[in-house]
Amino acid sequence: xxxxxxxxxxxxxxxxxxSGPCTFMLGVVSADALPAxxxxxxxxxxxxxxxxxxxxxxxxxxxxxxxxxxxPGRTQEINFFDLGGVLxxxxxxxxxxxxxxxxDASRWSRLTRDFMRGRAALRRTCLLIDSRHGLxxxxxxxxxxxxxxxxxxxxxxxxxxxxxxxxxAALIEETSAAIARRPAAHPAIIATSAVTAAGIAELRAELxxxxxx
Length: 213
Ligand code: GDP
Fold this sequence. Notes:
This protein is of the alpha/beta class.
């Protein structure tokens, strides 16, 4: 076992939550268009190509939930999805795409900071990390943004089907050490694959527990 463990009840609550209808609400490009807060929100962030759309689709059990741009780094839009009227999933724009890195990073942090500032509804941000690459400088920048916004975040490893179990265990250990002193980082790391569905039930359970709080 490489990640946190969940009881049957917790897994079942996660399954039930994500079996509800998941519908696209709206996409916003500036803070003045953000929807009023209602209920709990969970955000998803990660470098372009990290597998964020695939993970959202796997969580929701859909083929094409996330409105993804085909050009990495192009979409600077926050997309809101309603999950059964209980939880909102917030798809933050991808960051760190090399070609537009600088401009991208400043726009990313402005829009997300605007979003996170005083957003009581936002319970946690899942920070997606490609398990083949581990934490990159752009991820550390984003972690610093989240730490300074006191916005709780949790590392979710993606594409774990691409690495061997030993490498995964080492990555989890390494990543745990790297986040240990970060004030807004949740200590538990969840390892997922959208291809094998590894960790998907566990992530659903984690998010259901947050939504119930
Ligand atoms: P996004 O840009 O973060 O939304 O990333 P996508 O979900 O579009 O995925 C980027 C690429 O990684 C695509 O080619 C996906 O097929 C691939 N991918 C995403 N998730 C996984 C996974 O869990 N395992 C593997 N092997 N490939 C994945």
